[in-house]
Design brief:
Number of helices: 12
Structural class: mainly alpha
Order of helices and strands: HEEHHHHHHHHHHHEE
Strand content: under 5%
Number of strands: 4
Shape: extended
Helix content: 55-70%
Largest sheet: 2 strands, antiparallel
Length: 316
Amino acid sequence: MALPGLSAPVRHRPPSSRHRALARARGPVASLAPGRAPDRAPDRGPGPELVRELDRATARALEGARPASRTTQRRPARAAVAAAVRWWPLAAAAVLLAVVVDVVTAGPLVRLDVAVQAYAPLQRWPALEDAAWVMDDMGLRGLTVPLLVVVALLLRWRTGDWRPLLVVVVSELALNLVVGSTKLATGRGFPRDGDPALGQDGIIFPSGHAANTALCAALLVHFAGRWRGRRLRRRTQVAAVAGPTATMAAISLYLGTHWVTDLVVGALVGLLLARAALRWQEQIARVARRLTGWRLDAPGVRARTAPPARPAPAPR
């Protein structure tokens, strides 16, 4: 039907089902004319905000039917890896305690020590002995400590921070104290004697070579991240620490200088001491600052203290 004053009829677009649902959801509104009962508002269609909200709701509904992407599927695995990385010191401490108890009580791990040494790899492959002794010397503190000190001094030159050197000093002192006192207290027998019992004249439990290698590798990985300005990837960190430590353990087993449990306990001690020194490096620097009066996190700046106040001149 044509309206007066218009040459062509006006065609109204019928409301869609989605628009009618929105109009019903809004409910009745009061009429502007007094005395009339409330009626429904004219269906003029949803505004832009409601349209966008509907689009988002539809997208969320459709997303549940879509197959999960690779990134979504990897999230639980990444969360599990992050949790394992966060709690590995506690797990390592539990394994360390379990191995120590087994050695003290002569449990099944001690029988594993005897079985591995009975295989006698040195007699089976004697051609590797000279190279094995050379590589075994790389686990001595006479080589690992100077390497760590040089890297820490390079980091001080690059960043102006003395804390890496403090971490090296404190961790090495703690390693010598823990490993040395435990060796003297246990007195475990040498593998060449065939008796892994405690209370003898041996000083092999735990392995100092494994502890030095694990500590040195862990600190070097941390220092490499400091040098680059960001941490290394977890895979790189694990490979850089586990590779040298496992190699040193294999060499010791080949030469017959340690039992298996000696190497396991030594490696765990080195890792835990490195973790503790890095975790508490701020506290270590604070104690050193109190003892020396130097701000060790800045290049050669003495701790700022307020100068003594000068007495005011007496009135004349």
